[in-house]
Amino acid sequence: MTQPTPLFDYTGHLPECPIWSGEEQALYWTDILQREIHRYDIASGGHRVVSFPEEVGCFALRRGGGFIVAMRSAIWLADADGTLRQKVCDNPSNPQLARFNDGGTDRDGRFYAGTFWAPGDYNGALLVRVDNRLKVSVIQCDIHGANGLAFSADKKWMYTSDTPNAVIYRTPLGADGEPGARQVFRRFGPGEGIPDGAAVDEEGCYWSALYDGWRVARFSPEGEQLAEIRLPVRCPTMVCFGGADRKTLYITTTRENMSAEEVAEYPLSGAIFTLPVTVAGMKTLPFIAD
After folding, report:
1. Domain 5-276 CATH (choose: 3.40.718.10, 2.120.10.30, 3.40.190.80, 3.50.50.60)
2. pTM confidence score
């Protein structure tokens, strides 16, 4: 297999939430700790950075332009230049202790955003959903660090991970999209890495960025590891599929909490890697508000 290579000459602090725009042929991502959303045009190499007043844990492109952004204190609708237009809701967690983290859209264009419980004394994080009418619901709780959100093509399953607890879950979805009881999909032991952000391909397989594991792994719908991609950095954070045929894997990585010595030894920590793959990823929908 071809080895992952850096997308361009860039390293961030905590790049996360890569999103491919098929219409624009551009990659978006957030650098959470830098309070930025980035856009990289594949054809021209143009790189644009939009600043926000707080950490952007996750976001989605909006149908018609702009973003829905989950910042530390609230979820907002924003213009493409970062202007905040409408507050959707406050962070239902304590924003001093739990910022928004991983999120994205489902197959109906609804937006999900999870939080990360910083104290770590119990599973105090949660997952919320913003529907197409901007109604907000708490979908799941009993989470330490929400991550790994992805949906099956048939709308029957939602995948999530709890990174500090080293577990991936899958949750059955009803015909109306309402979740049932979550199930353990896979647990991870010492040395395997812990599951961070993820995406699903057209064959129904789940690709997970294994933080602290130096790798990305592909799992069957039954949880069997089918393949892995080794990386030259310790902490990948999330993956997405892009390119004209959605057969390019983009991998965000981080240098958060790394010593100067580790960054010097592994200077690509915080880079975005790209890799051609043989299976296409599922198309990511924008957030759709009625």
Report:
1. 2.120.10.30
2. 0.97
Q: Quick one: average pLDDT of 79-106?
A: 97
- Is 142 annotated as contributing to ligand binding? no
Q: Phi, psi (5° rounding) for residue 44?
A: -90, -20
* Spatial separation of the C-alpha atoms in residues 68 and 131, rounded to whole Å: 12
Active-site pick, 142, 196, 245, 290: 196
**Residue 196 is among the residues annotated as catalytic for this protein:** yes
- Tell me which residue of 56, 5, 52, 51 sits closest to 30, measured CA to CA: 56
Residue spans of the domains in the chain: they are 5-276
Mean pLDDT of the chain: 97
178 is in an annotated binding site: no
- Cβ neighbors of 199 (< 8 A, separation 6 or more) are 150, 206, 207, 238, 239, 240, 241, 281, 282
Residue 192 annotated in ligand binding = no
